[in-house]
Every structure is written in structure tokens, then in C-alpha cells.
TrEMBL record:
Region Disordered: start-end pairs: 333-352
Domain of life: Bacteria
Pfam families for this protein: GFO_IDH_MocA, GFO_IDH_MocA_C3
Keyword rRNA-binding: no
This protein's name: Dehydrogenase
Organism of derivation: Brachybacterium muris UCD-AY4
UniProt KW keywords: NAD
Length: 352
């Protein structure tokens, strides 16, 4: 089988996990890395032993990759993805899909265009052993129908985290704060595990880090799911430490708790615990353990002509939910009953 030529665009923090995963994959060859920042580009070039470029365009022209990984800030995802897809190159982009809904829509359309190459979005926590098993239990109704859920994201982000990468604290660079950068994983899991979302209300505020960021660091989100049940997310980047994300799902005949482990507790039955795979040494604790699993799965379908299951359309609801909380005004006060636009194709993973 022909070697798959790949390039990583953006040599910052998360690129390390992508480079590690690529190095583990037989039949995949890293041919170039790219960064607009010369220092980061040169460091990664030296570490990975491949040439570096200063733009995606140069990468495509000089090194003809079959796949590019987008590990750039949020506002860069859409243009880079559209350019790569137009050049016939598969794309694996980091979350979020994009920093704005207009950019997200462009990516959904580019992915749906006739003959478009595959594009996947890195919601790696869907690959967690705990999450996979919870999804299976819910899908098969093993504990009866879910009746509600609560999730908490209590994480610690320092001023230095934002000062080191100013885009993270700005609306222009990031498209939001805690919700789009951190809690988006949990919003995605809630909507995926509970079968989609029909309405959202929420609040977002800057309570801890206002001296260094203009975006929110604290939020609550209440989701209504198609069955009529609700889930509630409580999230902050102002916690004193990084606690494990926790999702508690109540069902008719028992409970599921996803934390570091999955605890399955059937009513009147015996508790069962599912452990998580170990995270690679290069990962921060809060990145989870499943980048390599998602990346391997993405490459397993290379050239198949089949879309990757976490497509732009599939990744859109989480973005749409948090944008509903921001309420289009970047306003922090809640908008009670903010209804999602059900006709919006971004909300329907089956829409083309
Ligand atoms: N899936 C996860 O759990 C997870 C965890 C961390 C970060 N991320 C995501 O990864 C992405 C990058 O985050 P990070 O923390 O590594 O950021 P970072 O700032 O550390 O790295 C981004 C790099 O991209 C470079 N860059 C910017 N524009 C570019 C362009 N047009 N072409 C080439 N390079 C460009 C920057 O110079 C920088 O080196 C974000 O989308 C972030 O949300 C995902």
C-alpha cells in the first residue's frame, strides 16, 4: 500500500500529540510541518526531522501531502480547511470546527461539495473507553431511557496560559472563551450521548481572569434534548486545580457516572466500573487519552471515499449550542429560551 503523506499545520501545544500519533502509524509519513511563527516552526522541524514551511499554500505546493492536520488557532481553521479540501487534500482539524458560525457553514459546505476529500474534527473524547461504553448502554436502553444529566467542567487556567497565546483570550482569535475552547468537548458529549439538542439557555461571564481575557471563563448551559429531558452544564476555568470532567446521567433504571472512570449503577443491581486508557506522557491531563485513537481511526478510512463520522456537520451542534449562549451579541446576560434554529443544517448531522 502507498505511504500516506501527511503534514501538520501549526506547531504549538497540541501539535505534539498529533506528531506523536502520526509517528506511531505504519504507512503514514510526516513530510512537513508548518507554522507562521519561525521559532516554533524551527523547533518542530528540528525535533521531527522534516522540513518546515511558513504557509499551508507552500506546504501543498512543495510537499504534496495527502492529509493535513490543522493545529492552528480557531480563527484559522476554516480558511485552511477550505484551501486544503479544494486542493484535494484530506483534513483533520482540531476543535472547535471554527470560531464563527459563518466559517463553520463554509466548512460544512466545502465538505459536502461533490468529490470533496474527507474532513474530520478532533472531538477525541468520543473515543474514550468510558464514553464509548456509556453511549452503547444508552443506545441499547440497558438502563431504560435517560431522564436527565448534569456535567461539570472545573478547570484551572492561569493568566500565563492566556498571555502565552493571546488569541485564546480574544473574541477575534478564539470566538469565545471557556465554552468554545474547553467546555465544547462536554457540550458535544452531552448532545451526542442524549440524542441531539432542541433548545438551549445559558449564562456566561468573566469572573476570574478578566484582567487578561475579554472572553468568558465561567458558564452554565441548560440543554433540552429531543425526548424532552434536560441536561445542565456547570463550567469554569477559575477552579483552583484541574478536576476530572464529570457527567452524571440519570436513567429510568439506574445511573451512569463518567469521570476518570465510568461507573454504571443499575437500580438494585451491582455497580460496574469501566476504566479509561492511559494518556500518553506528552499529554496534559485535561487533553484526555484519545487523540491517538481518533487519529488512527481517521487514517484507517483514508482513501475509502467514506466521510469521517465526526464531520463538520457532526461537529456543528456543539458550536451552535455555545453560540446560542453567546447570543450573537457576545452578551453575557442570558437570553431565556433561546431556541436553536432547527432548520439550520448545522444542527442536523444527516443534512448535506
Ligand atoms: N482536542 C483537544 O483536547 C485540544 C487541546 C488543546 C488545543 N486544542 C486545539 O488545537 C488548536 C491549537 O491550540 P494550541 O493550544 O496548540 O495553540 P498554540 O497557539 O499553542 O499553537 C497554534 C500554532 O499555530 C500557528 N499558526 C497560527 N496561524 C497559522 C497559520 N495560518 N498557518 C500555520 N500556523 C499557524 C501559531 O503560530 C502557533 O504556533 C486550537 O484549535 C485548540 O482549540 C485542542
Amino acid at each position: 500500500m502507498r505511504t500516506i503523506r501527511t503534514a501538520v499545520i501549526g506547531c504549538g501545544d497540541i501539535s505534539v500529540l498529533h506528531l506523536d500519533a502520526i509517528a506511531q502509524l505504519p504507512g503514514v509519513e510526516l513530510v512537513a510541518v508548518c507554522d507562521v511563527d519561525a521559532e516554533r516552526r524551527e523547533r518542530t522541524t528540528a525535533e521531527a526531522g522534516v522540513p518546515g514551511t511558513a504557509s499551508l499554500t507552500e506546504t501543498l505546493e512543495r510537499y504534496s501531502p495527502d492529509v493535513v492536520h490543522l493545529c492552528t488557532p480557531h480563527d484559522q481553521h476554516a480558511d485552511l480547511a477550505v484551501e486544503a479540501l479544494a486542493a484535494g487534500v484530506e483534513v483533520l482539524t482540531e476543535k472547535p470546527l471554527a470560531s464563527t458560525l459563518d466559517d463553520a457553514r463554509r466548512m460544512v459546505e466545502a465538505a459536502a461539495a461533490s468529490g470533496a476529500p474527507r474532513i474530520g474534527v478532533c472531538f477525541q473524547n468520543r473515543y474514550n473507553a468510558t464514553v464509548q461504553e456509556a453511549h452503547r448502554i444508552l443506545e441499547h436502553g440497558e438502563l431504560g431511557a435517560p431522564t436527565g444529566a448534569v456535567a461539570t467542567v472545573a478547570w484551572h487556567r492561569t493568566p500565563e496560559y492566556y498571555l502565552a497565546r493571546p488569541w485564546r483570550g480574544t473574541w477575534a482569535g478564539s470566538g469565545g472563551g471557556l465554552l468554545i475552547n474547553q467546555a465544547i468537548h462536554t457540550l458535544d458529549l452531552l448532545q451526542w450521548l442524549l440524542g441531539g439538542v432542541t433548545a438551549v439557555t445559558g449564562t456566561a461571564s468573566t469572573d476570574s481572569l478578566g484582567e487578561v481575557i475579554e472572553v468568558e471563563d465561567t458558564a452554565t448551559v441548560t440543554l433540552t434534548h429531543p425526548s424532552g429531558i434536560r441536561s445542565v452544564l456547570l463550567a469554569t476555568n477559575g477552579a483552583p486545580t484541574n478536576l476530572p470532567v464529570q457527567i452524571d446521567i440519570q436513567c429510568e433504571h439506574g445511573t451512569l457516572r463518567i469521570a476518570q472512570e465510568l461507573t454504571v449503577l443499575p437500580a438494585g443491581g451491582e455497580q460496574r466500573v469501566v476504566t479509561e486508557r492511559a494518556a500518553p506522557p506528552s499529554a496534559r491531563s485535561y487533553w484526555g487519552a484519545s487523540h491517538a485513537a481518533l487519529i488512527a481511526d481517521f487514517y484507517a478510512g483514508h482513501g475509502s471515499g467514506q466521510p469521517f463520522w465526526i464531520s463538520p456537520a457532526e461537529a456543528s451542534p456543539a458550536l451552535q449550542i455555545l453560540k446560542a449562549v453567546y447570543d450573537g451579541k457576545r452578551g453575557f446576560p442570558r437570553r431565556p429560551g433561546a431556541e436553536l434554529d432547527r432548520d439550520n443544517p448545522l444542527l442536523d448531522p444527516t443534512a448535506t
